[in-house]
Amino acid sequence: MRYALTLAWQEIRHTWKTPSFYFTAALFLFYQGIVLAVTLALRQHPLSPPGPLLAPFFGGPFWFWPMLILVVVELSHNAISRERSQNTLDALRASVLTPHRIVLGKYLAMLATWTLLWVATLPLLLFLWIILPPDVTVPAGPVLTGYAGVVLVGGAGLALGLFFSSLTADTRLSGMLTFVVLFAFVLVKIMTSPAFGIVRDPNLMRLLDAFNFFDVLERLSRGFVHLRDLTLLLTLIFAGVAGAGRVLGAGLRRRSRWNAVDLGAWALLAALGFALVFRLGWTWDVTGRPQLDPRLEQRIRETTEPVTLYLFTGSPSAAAPFSPVPELEVHLERVCRKSPLLRWERIQAASSGPRASALAARFGLNLAAMEADSTGILEGRLVAATAVRHHVIRLSDLFVMDVREDGVVFHGVALQSALSRGLARLQRPDDASWCFTRGHQERQITDTSAVGLARLAAGLQFSGISTREIDLLSPVPTNCRLLFSADPQTDLMSAEEENLATALREGRTGLVLASHEYNQLPASWKRPLLDCHLGFSDTVAEDPRQQLRSGEPGRFLVPWPGRNGRLLLTRPLVISADRSAVPLLTTSDRARHIERRTGRVLEEKTAVLAARSGPDCASRILLLGFSDAFSNDRLTIGGQSSDASMNWLLTQLRWAAAEPPDETMPIFEMEHHKLVLPQSQVARIQTFALLLWPLFALAVGLWVARRRRA
């Protein structure tokens, strides 16, 4: 080892005394100054990507890679080819140095030079840190893993370049081979990207992803150290160095069977270790993320059958670097490590093979809509599935974000609560349904017209809730957790009224009644409400204080109490809720109560627009003074609303169905920087990074050249 280190030091001194090295360093620093400037521009962009502040500086986007590959080629292409072309290789091999020591010494010299180039970028980050606002933090963990990542990826490239340099005396050929192979590792990202559709076979995509340098460096720059990534890089380093040593010593000793067997054994051992590591998928998170909530861990321990989490996302676009989906994937991997019964899989809508299409059909998902969604969030879904059950979660419901005038700011991922609810549904022993009545001219879940409820049913099914229509002429099925009737216009028959009363009296189902301004609820539907002190009044509400547009007091926004959400309603009916009845939605204290028949303003006071039965009522009854908020013309195809109406309704229906309340668990906070720097400070950073620091390296190169001439 001492001889190898001596050779390495001689190679380092030779390189550092060469003016061309400093010119290369100046070009490298200038390019990294450009990358830093682009990173700052990204952080000030309205769509600043989530993640650590300096993650793009360490190789996130494509612009990082050209200079990395070119510098690696420049450092390694003539490591041994130069010795061959100058006829000095035989002298080296005749010395006390063995071929492997020669190769190791040259590799250590190249790795030290490559590391020095990256150490030279530290003043750029230090200068940036000095002028950052005091409230902007730069965690050390992702910065350290980012530097470790570029050193390891560059080290793998140097080892491959050393191997190709040992094969030929032509330095241009060895440089070309190194460039092509390294660029191929980066092009794997394009080949496996669904946006291009080059590779669509899932098994081949999974194999190619194992050699994706692009994603390896992106994970390291975000502070995630995957054992499989380290295994890949170290395998390439050892293979390149060992291969070059084997080539260099080919003519020095007689080949024997032992060498071939030895190489075969090592290859099999490496393949076995590689496969084992990729199967285990161990990961270290240096960002210090909090542990899972104990309640979620308990839910995971109670899981008795295999559960697969399918992450359905759309095709990535030019805005892919801004996506928070990689943050969700990190947490899915953390969750799945808690139990051997859990695993997760990403399904790209654009690469919809037979398996993806079959899964989408099973879960009722629209792959075409997902593929058209460039964000991957609006139409994306997370599906928790067993062999016979599944629960669908919208990705848009998982990400906690603020939409501001200057862009979107992501605060975290609300995965724990949603996943706990999903696992609870999968473990439910019965096949409960939410039932919608028919036969009284009410709105139907099979009606696809503007006033129908087909999209509401689709939204419930996407949430893992089974829906069906029933006729009250027969007894209410025992698996009907609730009865929903929207705008019934005809009276119940005596048999129907008796069946409804029986189901409510036994407490095995809840009743949800919704009506609107132009519907007069028949008397037989009102009778079950009397004992619970609920009822529909004969007035509608207008709220000038909350009106959406000036001059339209009948169309106003109603806040969701205790939540950051609002519902958009149009002239809803006023609910009478007396004694222990619980009001759910109310107007301001200046709302107008307008008589439906005459249009006369009766009074101005707070109006109750939705209410539910209280503790002194034996039945679970929910009254809504509006129904148009859930009709097809107000919802998307997937059953989502532009306001909080759908989420609010889902919460209330779960109460009516006597489902356990959602457990509120902490969100996984997401680091999302939005810098607002004065132009003068940005100009200072750019001047230092793009001009002063590269010029310093260039000046050192000129000084070295002058000394060599002297």
Task: Describe the 3D structure.
The protein is an alpha+beta fold and 710 residues long. The chain has 3 domains: 2-286 and 689-709, no CATH class; 294-424, Glutaredoxin (3-Layer(aba) Sandwich), CATH 3.40.30.10; 434-656, Rossmann fold (3-Layer(aba) Sandwich), CATH 3.40.50.880. 47% of the residues lie in helices and 16% in strands. It is built from 24 helices and 22 strands. The protein has a 7-stranded mixed β-sheet. A 4-stranded mixed β-sheet has the order 4-3-5-6. Helix 20 links the parallel strand 9 (433-437) and strand 10. Helix 1 crosses helix 6, helix 2 (19-43) runs antiparallel to helix 24 and helix 3 (65-76) runs antiparallel to helix 9 (171-191). The chain is elongated and about 110 Å long. The two termini are 36 Å apart.
Distance between the termini: 36 Å
Q: Pairing-aware structural class of the strands and helices? A: alpha+beta
Gyration radius, to the nearest Å? 33 Å
Strand content: 15-25%
Q: Return the domain count.
A: 3
